[in-house]
Write a structure and sequence with these properties.
4-stranded antiparallel β-sheet; 4-stranded mixed β-sheet
């Protein structure tokens, strides 16, 4: 499953990838694309100042910037 996480506000958006606690800041107006691989579903938790993305129990993820550069795999 692929999702797009967009920083729609005028401020950057902090995205925290759990369970490892990896972080990435999405610049205002930009987005990242997250693909969850394997079995199970990921989880998305929206907080006041950040977004948490939990990896599926079985599987992994890949993450790209809006320009297509891979951030995490």
């Amino acid at each position: 499953m692929k999702i797009r996480v967009v920083a729609k506000q005028k401020a950057p958006l902090l995205v925290v990838f759990e369970p490892l606690g990896e972080e990435y800041v999405v610049p205002p107006g930009e987005h990242i694309v997250v693909e969850w691989l394997g079995d199970g579903e990921g989880e998305i938790a929206v907080h006041d100042d950040h977004v948490k993305l939990w990896d599926p129990i079985r599987g992994s993820k890949r993450v790209w910037t809006a320009e297509g550069d891979e951030l995490l795999s």
